[in-house]
Every structure is written in C-alpha cells, then in structure tokens.
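Hi,

I'm pasting everything inline rather than attaching a file, because the server keeps stripping attachments. The sequence lines come first, and each chain or strand is labelled.
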Amino acid sequence: MATREDIETYIGRVALGDRAAFAALYSATSAKLFGVTLRVLNNRAEADDALQEVFIKVWRAADRYQTNGLSPMTWLITIARNHAIDRLRARKKGQAGLDEVAELADSAPGPEQQAIASSARAQINDCLDELPKDRAEAVRRVYLDGDTYQDLADAMQVPLNTMRTWLRRSLIKLKDCLSQ
Amino acid sequence: MTDDVTDDAPLSAAAEYALGLLTPAQARAFEADMNSDLSLRAELAHWQEHFVTLTDDIAPVTPPKATFDAISARLFDAPQLRRNWFGWLAGAASAVVTAAAVMTVVLPAPNPTTNDLVAGLVGADIDLRVDATFDPDTNTLLLNRVAGAPADGRVLEMWLIAGDDAPISLGLLPDAQTGQVQIAADLAARVAGGILALSDEPLGGSPTGAPTGDVVALAPFSSV
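And the predicted assembly:
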C-alpha cells in the first residue's frame, strides 16, 4: 500500500507531467476516491464519470498541490467530494461551486498544520458527538450529502435564518472542541 | 436545547466555505479575504483536514477497468473527442464532408472565474468565431460571436455532444453579438468533458431534433 510519502511523490511528479506517476497515483488512490464519489452520487455511472473528471482536475492542478498544508489524501478526497457534490447540486442554483476549494489552499504548511492530519482522525466524530444529535447529523449531511441551508431548513421545518444560526453555532462549538 | 453561544460569536467563513454553504458571492469574498490573510488559509486547511475524516468510513471501491483508459483518453488523446464525434456523424452522412474540415480551437474567455468552462469555436469553411463560456454556478452559457454570422435566412443551432450520445440541442445561437442561454440542470452536469457544436439550420432551428445542416464549427469545453 502506498504511503503518504509515496502519494506526495506521485503528485509532485504528476505536476511535472509524468504520466507513469499519474498511473501510479491512480492505482493507489482511485478506489478510495471512487468510494467517495459513489457514496455522494449513489449512482455507479455518474460516480465513474465524476471520478474521471476528478483525475483530470488532479492532473491539471497537481502543480498547485506542492506543499499546501493539506495531506495528499485530504487534498484528493476533498477534490472528489467537492466535485461529486457540485454534480449533485447541479440542479440547484445560487450555491457556490466547490471545485476550487481544495485547489485554492496553497500556503506553506506550518508545523501545526502538519500535525493536524494525524490528530484529526476520529476527533471530529468525538466533537460531533458533543453536539445535539440533530445538529451533528446536519453537519454530516452537509459534508456527505451536499445539503444546503435551505435543504436543512426544509428537513427540520425551521426558517432558513434559524437553520443558519443553528448550524453556525454548531460550527463554533465544533471549532472550540477541535481546538482543545 | 439552549444555545449558549450568541449569534455574534466569532466564526470566520472558513468552515462554511469548506462545507460549501456560502453563496457564490460570499465564497468569492472569502477567497479574496484569504488572499490577504494567510491565517484564513490555515484555518480552511484545518477544517478540511477535520471534515475529510468523515469519509474514513467510506469503503474503497475499485472503479471499472475502463475508467483509467477513459481518463487517459480525455487528457492525452485529443483525437478521441473527434472519434466520438465522427462515430455519431456516421449516421448523418450529409454532414461528414463538412465536419472533416472543421477546426477545433480553444480560446480563453474574458475575465473567467476559476470554474468556468470555455469553448472557442472557429468555422473552417465560413468566417465565424464564437467564444462560449459556461458558468457552472449559474448554469448559464455566455456567447460572444466575435466574427461572422449565419447565412441569410438561416440560423446557427448549438449542440452539446456528451460522451457517445447523440447531440442535444442547446437552442439557437443568439442573434445579438453577445447573449446568454440558460442550460437545463440535467444538461449542465454534462457540459464538462462535452463538445459544443454549431450547425447551419433553417429559421426556427432544426425541425428534427438532430442537426440537419452542415456542422460549421465545434470545440470541446475545457477548464480555464
């Protein structure tokens, strides 16, 4: 199994146009990324098409990965998740495209950020568990199902502004918990 | 429950940006803020590392065998696009001769935002240049007819060719030099990786739902 260093090396070589490294990167990470696009889109053909587009983006954006503070799998999964959710939301208007989110982060990592990747695992679940159950579920639905504030407001039968306030408060609590 | 945090408690837009909860305008504003404030970038990376662990439970699924070849073809094998196109054209013999002479050129669009897709169409046999920019945030296709016009008494009809499917009409090229058309949501999802084509049609557009006249220009959509 490819290590984090392997994947970083592949991405670095892909940034230089190395097709063999691109094949190696695909072979090491495509199953996880397909799992993600499949989970979000829940349709094999669409998830397959999304996966193709994700790797096209990766090929084109690899030079912007460099040392951007994200672990390589976070960068890749974030591109896959954002792209899948953009597709899912294609019917909805007025929602920001997410595709650029992962590509934008290109600041050099501080030691703190480098430490995050290892400690983040599972921590968010512990912190979500400290929120009221419906609020934690709302955060998960936004991340994994692409729910918007309006979707959540409709599902929970509350006004949009109420939903926004609730979720922002939940994010503040989450931030406090994650920083402990 | 009681919320023990006031509505005004400090929360930057980083978390909502990472989740995709901002409106396009809010997202652009956050991006501008990030450019001048590196701590916001660090905060965004922080949230992304945490949120991504929500995918830890998602089991890997081996993609279909053909997928990598499809990606390679889309990236490295430009003629692949035209093979698909000609594959479809085989059923429309009258258009083949003209299409064979069509050039494809990708031109940058003015002031594109990061996720726009552009297609620059240049007619080979006629003087025609059309720049098309698709905005996935709004599902609008902006058209700028830089040069040329349809023949008298004729119109140009736009077609989206996605994968191996038959062309899907996107309506008529606007009469004005610049214009925009709204793309239906189900089609909008297929613009990326698709090809934009223009065909010469009678007034009112193709009567059959498929191109009936010559294909005068075509180009793939590509990221800016």
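Residues 38-52 of chain B form the longest helix (15 residues).

If the labels don't parse on your end, tell me and I'll reformat.
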